[in-house]
TrEMBL record:
Residues covered by the Glycosyltransferase 2-like domain: 10-168
Organism the protein comes from: Mucilaginibacter myungsuensis
Organism classification: Bacteria, Pseudomonadati, Bacteroidota, Sphingobacteriia, Sphingobacteriales
Residues passing through the membrane, by range: none
InterPro entries: Glyco_trans_2-like, Glycosyltransf_2, Nucleotide-diphossugar_trans
Top-rank lineage group of the source organism: Bacteria
Protein name listed in UniProt: Glycosyltransferase family 2 protein
Amino acid sequence: MSLNNLPLVSIVIPVYNREILVKKALDAAIAQTYPNIEVVVNDNNSTDNTYEVVRGYLKDNPQIKLFRNEQNVGPVNNWLQGIKNASGDYVKILFSDDWISDDYIEKTMLQFTSQVGLVFTPAIIRKKINITNYKLFKSTKIINSALFLKFMLLAYRTPVSPGCAIFRKVDILPILSTVIDTERHAEYLRFGAGIDLLTYLMVAEKYDKIAYVSDTYAHFLEHDDSFTYANALDQYYIKAFDHFLERTKKVKFKSLYSLIHHSRGYKFIRHFSNK
C-alpha cells in the first residue's frame, strides 16, 4: 500500500481505571508519523480519574474521540464497543497500559494489499526490571497464511497479543461480535484470554497472506491485571484452538484437525485444560 493513498486508521484504546498509564498510550497514538489516524478511547465506566485524564487531551488533539460506557461491560465488550465507534477501515487495538513505536502505523500500513489480511510486529514485554523481545523473524516478510496457521496449530504458538497487529475493521468486528453473542465463549468475555489467538487464526484463514514487519515495535507493560499474553498457553488458548479447529475441520484443515486431535501432546493439554 502506498502512503500516497492514505486510508483512515483507527487506534482503539479500551480503558478501565488507568488514570496514570493511559497517558503513555495516548502520547504514543498521537505521535504516529502516519498522518491519517483517529484515536478512539472507550472508557469502561472507570471509577478513578481516567475519563478526566483523557478528556484533558481533547482540546489540543482533535483526532481523539472519547466514549464512556454507562456501566462496566467487561473487557471484550469494551473492545468491541471501541471498534464499533471507530470510523477507520483499519483498526489497531492499543491497550491502555501499552504503547507503540512512533512509526508503527506507517510501517505496518505499507504492507497491506488485497491479499494480506493482517500485519503484525515484534513485541517488547516489560515486567518490572525484565525486558523480553519477542521477534519471530529477522526481517520484514509476507507469509503464506496456510503455512502460518499450520505453524501456530502444530506448535501451539501465537504472536503474543492482538496489540502487536493491525486488522481491517470488516474482519475483526464480526469475530468479536460472534464471540460475544455465543454463550459457550463466556470465559473469553470474562478474562479476554484466547481472543487474541482466535483473531489471528480466523483472519489468517480468510486471506492468502499475512505480513510481518520486523523494525517497529509494540510495547507491553505486564503486571498482575495486564491483558498482555505470554507464549505459554493456558486453558483459554486451548479453547480458542479447539473452537477454530471445530469450525474449520470440514474445510481447509480437516487433515490437520485429525492430526492434532489424535496427537499425544494435544490430548495431554486438553486433559489438563478441562480441570
